[in-house]
Write a structure and sequence with these properties.
The complex is a heterodimer of chains A (225) and B (183). In chain A, 8% of the residues lie in helices and 22% in strands. Chain A is mainly beta and 225 residues long. Classes of the chains: A mainly beta (225), B alpha+beta (183). Chains A and B meet through loops of A and helix 6 and helix 7 of B.
């Protein structure tokens, strides 16, 4: 049976040093995966179990999260700390890879998860770098493909910046530092109804808002060299 | 793919045309940005050493510019490249540059420190690299952003070039543009 939770290495050496991301979950999280039927869905539980801390760059390793040391609905990335600097790997100045992410379970009734990445400095509604939804796991590993079908069971929309292709749009700010927000949604519906491969990012976000049981955020920043 | 966004194949096919841009050319458009996402398409504009292009938000953001600030005072962009990417003269201003020139902006022609005369005004090329961003991709397509970031794109400076004003004055659409030899 696939592991239900994922750890993030190097981030939980001291429970006291961990600040919870903002969250507004409505009740204590269950300590089981969202749906029993998810156990047969994709996911990389076995892959995570074979990775070791020496496997490569920090981004490459995601170890299990012990839910007892995490706040409810907390999201983390092995690539950057909350309010920290986002590595060049995830930008147009580097490889342009999507962030590895891991989180603790949502509240009771959670059927699935979604992740949305926005450029908070840009503001407005056309500032979406990534929408990935219908996630059944507690993590996103590796580099997301540029297809409608995302990692595991998930689906993706185009971004605000690359409307011809699906998936993560590398961070690519104009001059200066831009702040980015990774929002995790725990939703009551999976698959998310009323959206298709033709849905725009903001349409899917509206659906997520309508079906959310809780959210959590992770923030980072990038200064264009 | 949006019918307004050019494919990579189309963009690459135009590289020889862009590479043959003249070394003495013309100022074909002037655009200032009163604020974020706002554009004024002008026929003439005053350029000053401290304020840059009059009416552009740069001077608001840098009321007392440092030497570093001056490196990003204004930009020039090659109109052959922009016309291809933008797909229409009405979309040029979306690029957000100030001076739109039919001129060879390549690294082989213009180096940081070189001076360019635009009518009666003299600009100095600065070392700050001018690169595309997410907004450029949103307006002109991800292929266009990747194209101008390619090795040939960077050699030709398809995204444009930064400059600062060293001899102020007024520039007009149609002004001759050329590198000052021996500057």
């Amino acid at each position: 049976m696939r592991l239900g939770f994922v750890l993030v290495t190097g981030l939980f050496t001291s429970i006291a040093a961990i600040g919870a991301c903002s969250s507004d979950s409505t009740s204590a999280p269950p300590k089981t995966s969202p749906e029993a039927s998810n156990a047969s869905d994709g996911g990389a539980g076995e892959d995570a179990a074979t990775l070791t801390p020496d496997a490569g760059p920090r981004d490459a390793y995601v170890a299990p999260i012990d839910p007892d040391v995490l706040a409810p609905m907390e999201i983390r990335s092995p690539a950057f700390d909350d309010n920290g600097d986002i590595p060049i790997l995830h930008t147009c100045d580097g490889g342009g890879q999507s962030f590895p992410l891991a989180w603790s379970p949502g509240p009771a009734g959670t059927k699935g998860y979604a992740v949305v990445v926005t450029d908070a400095t840009l503001g407005g509604t056309d500032n979406v770098h990534w929408v990935v939804y219908d996630i059944s796991d507690y993590y996103l590993l590796g580099n997301a493909p540029s297809t409608y079908k995302g990692p595991g069971t998930s689906l993706q929309t185009p971004s605000s910046f690359a409307t011809e292709t699906f998936g993560f749009s590398p961070l690519c700010p104009p001059v200066g530092t831009h702040s980015y927000v990774v929002t995790l949604y725990a939703v009551s519906e999976r698959p998310l109804a009323g959206v298709t491969s033709a849905s725009a990012p903001r349409d899917v976000i509206a659906k997520l808002e309508a079906k959310k049981l809780g959210t959590a955020t992770l923030k980072g920043k990038y200064l264009r060299p | 793919m949006s019918d307004r966004h050019r494919s990579r194949d189309t963009l690459d096919a135009a590289l020889p045309t862009i590479a043959s841009s003249p070394r003495s050319g013309r100022l074909q458009a002037i655009v200032v940005r009163p604020d974020t996402d706002l554009r004024d398409d002008l026929t003439a504009c005053r350029l000053s050493e401290r304020g840059g292009a009059e009416g552009d938000r740069w001077s608001k953001r840098h009321p007392d510019p440092s030497a570093k600030d001056l490196e990003s005072q204004l930009t020039l962009i090659n109109t052959r490249a922009l016309a291809l990417v933008a797909g229409g003269r009405d979309r040029w201003a979306l690029a957000g540059d100030q001076l739109y020139v039919d001129l060879d902006l390549s690294v082989d022609h213009l180096a940081p420190g070189d001076r360019v005369r635009v009518g009666g005004v003299v600009l100095e090329i600065t070392p700050k690299p001018h690169r595309g961003c997410s907004k450029f991709a949103a307006r002109f397509g991800a292929d266009a952003l990747a194209w101008l970031a390619s090795p040939e794109g960077e050699r030709l400076r398809l995204r444009g070039i930064y400059a600062r004003v060293v001899v102020p004055g007024e520039v007009h659409v149609g002004d001759a543009v050329a590198k000052l030899v021996g500057a």
